[in-house]
Design brief:
Radius of gyration: 12 Å
Number of domains: 1
Order of helices and strands: EEHHH
CATH architecture: Orthogonal Bundle
CATH superfamily: BFD-like [2Fe-2S]-binding domain
Low-confidence stretches: none
Number of helices: 3
Bound molecules: FE2/S2 (inorganic) cluster
Distance between the termini: 33 Å
């Protein structure tokens, strides 16, 4: 799914960025260009980032258990 139409950034790319250490919208702006034109994708990009962070946390907790 394309999240940022202006810069053709997909949710997959955002998830990959999160896996590589992106933690904030600013990280996504710097790394992928998300939300650097019209900005309409900012909330959706944050949701994808937060989902990925939650998944990574849950996976680490499962591994620790
Ligand atoms: S849709 Fe992402 S900056 Fe416009």
């Amino acid at each position: 799914m394309v999240v940022c139409i202006c810069n053709a950034v997909s949710d997959r790319e955002i998830r990959q960025a999160a896996a590589l250490g992106a933690q904030t919208l600013q990280d996504l702006k710097d790394g992928l260009g998300v939300a650097t034109c019209c900005g309409r994708c900012a909330s959706c990009a944050c949701q994808v980032l937060e989902q990925e962070q939650a998944c990574a946390l849950a996976a680490s907790q499962l591994q620790a258990a």
